[in-house]
Design a protein that fits this description.
single chain; TIM Barrel; 2 domains; ten-stranded mixed beta sheet; five-stranded antiparallel beta sheet
């Protein structure tokens, strides 16, 4: 059994209405996905988080080291890719390319063995997980921004979400006002997270944390730069709000630094950039050693979401009790036709919960029509050569 072809696709879609956060504005959605085919005729799909063109180039770089390998040997292939990038890409976009291939291999292996990914990870420890709606970005609205955000928040409540995450990072004064208004709108029984995307320095983050503590914030995500581990650690001593971060970390070694420095209460690896499912499993074990919760960052298509769902369903509940605590999964609700049209799944959102799929692999079916509709470039390599369009 061997891998006979690896194809990467850069998908793009212009947004009807742009939105922005503390760092920049989105006017389009662009993602790189990868298709891996074995000589058995089975296909696996993966996705890389980060600039799509560079992820695609990284996949092209790694392809010669993966073609011809046994697709069931996911760890062996992962180690080969890691060694071929270690000298010049210990962190960053090549790790995202590695992640995309790794996720596709897990999907492929599951389809070959006719088993769901969560079973191959070690077993499903929960049948349901709680999605939190990610949205409430900033927009160029005609009215008052806080009113627009509150209206969006109430839409999530009406849809049955039990938790949601809003953006902060415009300015401290605006953030306080927006958080206050959203909490008032959704009431006390919906968990509310905030995410600054590392917009603030330590002094500002402390001030904002203290100011929004009365609004029962479930966690404060990326309050300061991911470069400043000591600032994360100090902030944790100055607020009762749990601090989360980690979407900018890569591999288990990055998370070792994050955890050893006592920077966060919750780690948020992105499976599609931090090393794939193979490395995410190791990161989860490391986090358990430190007694820190894991809630992966998830952004992109249904491929990334399904990978996160299988991963979360396998997470240990530590220290453990009869009634297990809630396990959350990020559910991006911003405009994204790539997410909505590219894949379908039997994972059901019902009564504020996601029911985990037991279908083989990741349990997603890919819409080939949507793939070709949104593909802006294509790169394929096989035993018969390479093709680029």
């Amino acid at each position: 059994m061997k891998i006979i072809s690896i194809e990467s696709f850069i998908l793009s879609d212009k947004l009807k209405e742009s939105f922005y956060f503390s760092q920049w504005e989105y006017s389009e959605r662009r993602i790189c996905i990868v298709k891996i085919t074995s000589d058995t005729g089975h296909v696996g799909w993966g996705e890389g988080y980060g600039p799509a063109g560079i992820v695609s180039a990284g996949i092209e770089h790694l392809t010669p080291f993966v073609l011809g390998k046994n697709p069931l040997e996911t760890e062996t292939i992962w180690s080969t890719m890691y060694r071929r990038t270690l000298d010049f890409a210990r962190r960053g976009i090549l790790v995202s390319a590695l992640s995309a291939i790794d996720v596709a291999l897990w999907d492929l292996k599951g389809k070959i063995l006719e088993q769901p990914v969560h079973l191959m990870l070690g077993g499903k420890k929960r049948d349901k997980i709680i999605p939190y709606a990610t949205g409430m970005y900033f927009s160029h609205c005609n009215g008052k921004l806080s009113e627009t955000i509150c209206k969006e928040a109430m839409q999530y409540v009406d849809l049955g979400y039990k938790a949601m995450k809003m953006k902060v990072g415009l300015s401290i004064e605006e953030d306080i006002e927006n958080v206050k208004m959203v909490r008032k709108a959704i009431g006390p029984n919906i968990n509310l997270m905030i995410d600054a995307n590392h917009a603030y320095n330590l002094r500002e983050a402390i001030y904002l944390s203290k100011a929004v503590e009365p609004y029962n914030i479930y966690w404060f995500e990326e309050p300061v730069s991911p470069e400043y581990y000591d600032q994360y650690s100090e902030l944790r001593t100055k607020t009762i709000i749990p601090i989360s971060g980690g979407e900018c970390e890569y591999l288990i070694f990055g998370f070792q630094t994050l955890l050893k420095s006592q920077s966060v209460d919750i780690v948020q690896p992105d499976i599609c950039s931090t090393g794939g499912l193979t490395e995410a499993k190791r990161i989860a074990v490391l986090a358990s050693v430190y007694g820190v919760e894991v809630v992966p960052h998830t952004w992109g298509t249904g491929i990334a979401f399904s990978a996160a769902a299988h991963f979360i369903s396998n997470l240990d509940c530590l220290p453990g009790r009869i009634k297990n605590p809630v396990c959350y999964i990020e559910h991006d609700r911003t405009e994204n036709r790539l997410r909505d049209e590219l894949t379908s799944s039997d994972m059901i959102f019902k009564d504020g919960e996601i029911i985990i799929s037991d279908a083989p692999g990741l349990g997603v079916a890919l819409n080939e029509d949507a793939l070709h509709k949104y593909a802006m470039s294509y790169n394929a390599a096989s035993s018969n050569g390479r093709q680029t369009i």
